[in-house]
Specification:
Mean pLDDT: 91
Helix content: 10-25%
CATH topology of the largest domain: Double Stranded RNA Binding Domain
Number of strands: 25
Strand content: 25-35%
Low-confidence stretches: 1-20
Largest sheet: 8 strands, mixed
Strand order of the largest sheet: 12-11-13-16-17-10-18-25
């Protein structure tokens, strides 16, 4: 069960926060790199991830924004410790950032600080910690795409290129190229560029091929025994199985070969110069349409524009979460104690307050230690493996290889396991909207609350928070 421990590490790792000298940690809701790119924010912080529902998202911070200044002070000469300090100024509830992107030469945003105690654990974090209650709704997965991504070696600021057009369409493949170009246009418009057929700054050229592999070995043992390859399909907004061979498999194992690429060609400053390009080369075990590949993979191919981190075999992390949000954060050292309650949340509206003790949720006790919850959760997963659908098996981002959805024919047994007090499944309320948790479809939670010497029963109707992020790992 060594790999399983990683799956539930959120419970044990977060307890380390109680050892911090500062009991409160403030976050803005994004991560950043110090750019080494000659073409995008050299020496300055570049936003690499924005957390859903965070102050950064609400303030309008965008992926790959360059942070030019913090509180009016240029970031160009700041050391990493100085950047960290400036992102969390003492005595202020918000931070003023000057940002630059492909669509804006400069804009000012004010990002509120989200401050919580280091020994508090939120429902967002608990959803990941207890994801095997409902892997259909919450999971973190990693996948690799065989992409090659390149960028010009010239020192040129890509924000100087605003308008794009496409190279002339090959009439023999007009339908395919129309689909490819439409997918590319959608992605570059989201990044802040604008389409202009006349006098563009850059022209986008595409190239593609799809053929049977002349060197394919029909007796391939590896191809027969291959595992399913899962990737996030932007066209369907979910993880999908594709007939691709895994990384490291010889090309002779592939029955089909597929290539799709695009390049941005300078038309304004140095005509003919390739500014940026991305190319996919796939090995396939079964037929697959280029049109379908373009719709599902062009968003992934374009993700490293304008900020290139990896030139080969790009690794993606996809986090998908749907969970019940009440607004309660719990004390990691005493999970029955309410550490905070978000204002205007369902729990706050129901009268839950800081330092309330939640003795039970839906008749499941919360008065256990994190270690006891962890042990019971591990045992629950082991005991319920026969109730899961082996056809849905996948490996999560922590390397646990036996993640599976529930067998739809065994929902009654799943509910029995959830309701068994021995399994300590109080936090299964996070997924009570699922049919195997609540066959009636009722999504409400009953909390037994103690405040001082007074006990009460409180019903909360949670809001379902749904979020999906796909990022370069």
């Amino acid at each position: 069960m060594k790999q399983l421990i990683l799956t539930i590490s959120a419970l044990t790792m977060l307890s380390l926060g109680a050892l911090s000298q500062n009991p409160v940690i403030c976050r803005l809701g994004f991560t950043y790199d110090i750019s080494r790119s000659l073409n995008w924010g050299k020496g300055k912080p570049v936003v690499t991830k924005i957390y859903p529902y965070s102050p950064a998202e609400k303030a309008g911070v965008k992926l790959f924004d360059i942070i030019e200044a913090i509180e009016g002070i240029s970031t160009a000469e700041m050391t990493p410790p100085e950047l960290t300090a400036m992102m969390n100024p003492d005595g202020k509830n918000a931070v003023i950032l000057r940002l630059r992107s492909l669509s804006d030469t400069a804009r000012m945003v004010t990002v509120a600080k989200d401050c919580k105690r280091t020994d508090a654990i939120s429902e967002d974090q608990l959803a990941i910690a207890f994801s095997m209650y409902s892997p259909e709704n919450t999971s973190e997965r990693v996948f690799i795409c065989p992409f090659k991504t390149g960028i010009t070696a010239d020192t040129v600021d890509l924000s100087r290129f605003t308008y794009f057009a496409f190279a002339p369409v090959d009439e023999a493949n007009a339908r395919l190229e129309t689909v490819i170009n439409a997918a590319i246009e959608k992605e570059f418009k989201k990044k802040g560029l604008s389409f202009r057929a006349y006098n563009p700054d850059v022209v986008i050229e595409t190239f593609y091929s799809y053929n049977r592999n002349p060197n394919y070995r029909k007796s391939s043992i590896a191809a027969k025994n291959k595992q399913s390859v899962y990737r996030y399909d932007f066209a369907l907004s979910r993880m999908e199985s594709f007939p691709f061979l895994e990384q490291g498999v010889p090309e002779s194992e592939a029955e089909y070969l597929l290539q799709l690429g695009l390049r941005l060609v300078d038309k304004r400053i140095k005509p003919g110069r390739i500014l940026w390009e991305a190319e996919a080369n796939e090995l396939l075990s079964a037929p697959f349409r280029l049109e379908t590949y373009a719709q599902s993979h062009i968003p992934l191919l374009c993700m490293q524009f304008p900020y290139v981190k990896y030139t080969r075999n790009v690794q993606f992390l996809v986090s998908m979460k749907s969970f019940n949000y009440t607004g309660i954060s719990y004390d990691i050292n005493n999970l029955s104690t309410v550490m905070s309650v978000d204002l205007n949340s369902p729990a706050h509206a129901a009268g839950i307050r800081i330092r309330d003790v939640i003795e039970k949720i839906d008749n499941q006790s919360l008065e256990h230690t994190a270690e006891e919850f962890t042990a019971a959760y591990k045992q629950f997963i082991a005991n319920t493996m026969p109730l899961r659908d082996e056809a849905t098996v996948f490996t999560d981002a922590n390397g646990f290889k036996q993640c599976m959805h529930w067998d739809k024919l065994k929902y009654v047994q799943v509910l029995d396991a959830i309701q068994n007090p021995y399994n300590m499944t109080a936090f299964a309320y996070l997924y009570k909207f699922a049919p195997y948790m609540s066959p009636s479809g009722t999504n409400s939670c009953t909390l037994n609350v103690r405040r001082g010497r007074t006990r009460s029963e409180v019903m909360i109707r949670p809001a379902i928070h749904t979020e999906t992020t796909v990022e370069i790992k």
